[in-house]
Amino acid sequence: MIVSAEIDGMIHGAQSLKEKRAVLRRVQSRIQNEFNVSVSEIDHQNLWQRTKIGVVTISYDYKKAEQTIQKVLHFIDSFPGFERMDTFLERL
After folding, report:
1. What pLDDT digit, counting tens, does each position of 8-54 carry?
2. Which residues make Cβ contacts (< 8 Å) with residue 11, sequence separation at least 6?
């Protein structure tokens, strides 16, 4: 089973693309290391406070994949400086 999430977010305090990308690198690397999922910025690359990231996981069990994505979303909510605005989940 494949479960993905598209997450629209705001990076508060970023005053440039360089600052935004530094925050995104920290978020992405911590998500990948903690949850063993694929994560990438998929939209708003040239806006310095907005972002859209995609997170994907694959598992033999739909429930396990869904739980992993929910844990990732909870982690993102706890990350300082990053505000999750909209989230779209897709199950394949």
Report:
1. 999 988 899 999 999 999 999 999 999 999 999 999 999 989 999 99
2. 19, 20, 23, 24, 48, 49, 50, 51, 81, 82, 83
Domain boundaries, the chain: 2-91
Give me the residue label for tokens 């069990």.
Answer: 61
Whole-angstrom distance, CA of residue 11 vs CA of residue 57: 24
pTM of the predicted model, to two decimals?
0.91
The class level of CATH for 2-91 reads alpha beta
Return the axis-axis angle of helices 17-35 and 62-78, rounded to nearest 10°.
140
